[in-house]
Amino acid sequence: MSFLEGKYILLGVTGSIAAYKAADLASRLTQAGARVDVILTQGAGQFVTPLTFQSLTGRKAYTESDLWGGQAHVLHVGLGHSADLLVIAPCTANTLAKLAHGQADNLLTITALAAQCPTLVAPAMDVGMYGHPATQENVRILRGRGVVFAGPAEGRMASGLVGLGRMLEPPELLGHIRRVLGRDGALAGRKVVVTAGGTQEPIDPVRFIANRSSGKQGYALAQAAIDAGADVTLITTPTCLTPPAGASVVPVHTVGEMLEAVLVACREADVLLMAAAGADFRPANISENKLKKRDGIPQITLEAAPDILKAVAGLRSDSGRPRVVVGFAAESRDLLANASAKLTSKKLDFIAANDISASDAGFGSDTNRVTLLFAGGQKEPLPLMDKFAVAETIIARVAAILENE
Ligand code: CTP
Questions:
Q1: What is the β-pairing status of strands 231-236 and 248-251?
Q2: Taking a C-beta distance cutoff of 8 angstroms, is the pair 277, 213 a contact?
Q3: pLDDT (0 to 100) of residue 361
Q4: For ligand 1, what atom is nearest to the CA of residue 311?
Q5: Pocket test for ligand 1, best of 274, 343, 349 (most atoms within 8 A of CB)
Q6: Where in the chain do CATH 3.40.50.10300 domains reside?
Q7: Domain 191-403 annotated CATH 3.40.50.10300
Q8: Which residues on adjacent β-strands are paired with residue 182?
Q9: Would you call 211 a catalytic residue per the annotation?
Q10: Domain 8-181: which topology?
Q11: How far apart are CA 49 and CA 40, in angstroms?
Q12: What separation in angstroms does the CA of 249 have from each of 56, 117, 157, 234, 300?
């Protein structure tokens, strides 16, 4: 089940050219299972039509005329009362000013004033308007009242100017929406460190030894932890993936850099989810210059790389942090015996074991078939699931351990 399934989102659209992107956002939210009611201001109606949104959400899109229609007396209060989240995207400088001063002169601003749910605002305006002291003051007032801001981003404006004022792209907005909706979840207030991807161990300035980890399971874990309200640090090697909105990203390349980043982040962490494929061996000497063919075939001597989880076990015995440590075992034979040995030697709370010899599980695949082995001896085989569902299950088990502490 998608995280947004059954969530009720009110999407306010105001008069900016970025209104066309709001159509994409409405579509993505609807496809993810959310119920989306759209309110267009008069200005928004100059850029996009209610029909655009109705066609995407399958629901009536509200306009100014509804404010004075037959249902007007219940509409403005009703919409804001039952929603899980009010998103205003794009939000113009004008609407921002109205929100900051409690003005309620159209259906959207009336709804915002009556709303009992959190509000997320995605500003879109020209550089000068966003930077204007009046707008900045309004942003400060609204932030102080708990309104969440997503963006704006820096980039090229419709005016041709370049600077801060572009509305965030819909996939990024979706990430911010998830973050706000999840903030009271089972891991609210918890610090979770996730590692992802395969490390890159240099041979010379152009070559390295890597592995087949895609980072997908780690990124899914980071998203699932954010959905559950956690404060997430994602320590990642280069991947083709976009980090989830709201994660603090620490980029690393080598297992040595990952070790250092993990030890720093774990000092304060409640949870470590060690999904990365760290190198076990690395070149003992890194050539300063590119190895040349004319010098013959190089002999590369390898040395043992540090085992990050074993180092964390040491830290944990001193400081008690992280409280929960989860490992991953990618095995091509004797899955459960090997995973169980790692569970013990690395002093884990549980380990997710997956058989990488199957074509529908493991490296690069979107699905995983995982068995969870717990320190207490319990074994939980999970069916073939997409990596996000595996991540949600792991997060639920972590939350249960923390709750029973
Ligand atoms: N791991 C680690 N440090 C490393 C390598 C791996 O902390 N240098 C972690 C992985 O992130 C994973 C767990 O250890 O959570 C198991 O990794 P895996 O590669 O399956 O096991 P290894 O201990 O490396 O043993 P082997 O390669 O011999 O199977």
A1: parallel
A2: yes
A3: 66
A4: 7
A5: 274
A6: 191-403
A7: yes
A8: none
A9: yes
A10: Rossmann fold (3.40.50)
A11: 8
A12: 33, 29, 27, 5, 32
